[in-house]
């Protein structure tokens, strides 16, 4: 055969293959997801991020025809589960659904976490926020936050406060409140929100900042008493509970959000796919109604907007940790 003809055929084959490559990529993307997806919640079951993750997984699994399996990997205030996702294959089949603690807070403590959240994770978006409330056992002789502050000042060092873990957002938030109020109460860290609530119910601790979702039924049953809310306005579910400002303290301006993250180098089209689907959930009545029923705010932010929120938060938390002189060992 004519060598020139062979050369031309090879050239045509090469050009044809090159032309097909973009279509091959699109075909692969169109198949996503083609198998089960693992969604890691870096805290024990029963808390706010777990509840929202399972709701999102249920709705998206039905929509896509592929299972999203929620896996709780608790420990080290969310760092163990976060590290598991950082180390996972960047193929779009493992993601993290997390509150701020291991993402914008952990980096400010020593020892540093075994990952760099800013560079080791790709941000998909924010989905849902969790209003927070201050609660105490109903057996404690206080009706509101001012009553508790007066009691703690009268008997400094006698009372204890719980949190879901060292360095957790609720740990730091309580330290801000404690510092502003000028009271001495001792921190008792638990492994997750559910255990912290049990510690309050049992009387081992007398003060707890927690999500409304985690304690609302105990407030309604009369076992716990709501002392105040961290929100800038009163809660719809508990309109009689005063804000921090109404209690004479400064508003904190802290958002307890939930966000989705993938291992770095996960394909951009998969990240964009999740971003679009998460934003669409806020227009899904089944999702928004259930979120409100559970006392969550069904808000969503794009990946870029979420990155800006986290950038501001990182600076805020660094200042908080420095000003209240809190450490991960406290």
Distance N to C terminus: 82 Å
Structural class: alpha/beta
Helix content: 40-55%
Using only CA atoms, what is the Rg? 24 Å
Q: What number is the mean pLDDT?
A: 89
**Count of helical regions:** 12
Sequence of secondary-structure elements = HEHEHEHHEEHEHEHEHEEHHEH
Number of strands: 11
Largest sheet: 6 strands, mixed
Shape: globular
Low-confidence spans:
1-28
Numbering strands along the chain, what is their spatial order in the largest sheet? Answer: 2-1-3-10-4-11
Strand content bin: 15-25%
Features of the shown structure:
6-stranded mixed β-sheet, alpha/beta, 330 residues, globular, 12 helices
Structure explained in plain terms:
The structure is a single chain. The chain contains twelve helices and eleven strands. The chain is of the alpha/beta class.
Please describe the topology of this protein.
Elements: H1 3-30, E1 37-41, H2 48-64, E2 68-72, H3 79-86, E3 94-98, H4 101-105, H5 117-120, E4 121-129, E5 132-137, H6 145-154, E6 160-163, H7 169-181, E7 186-189, H8 193-202, E8 207-211, H9 212-221, E9 224-229, E10 257-263, H10 268-281, H11 285-293, E11 297-301, H12 303-323
Parallel strand pairs: 1-2, 1-3, 6-7, 6-8
Antiparallel strand pairs: 3-10, 4-10, 4-11, 5-8, 5-9
Question: Gist?
Answer:
The chain has 330 residues and is α/β, with parallel strands linked by helices. The chain is 45% helix and 18% strand. The protein is globular and about 65 Å long.
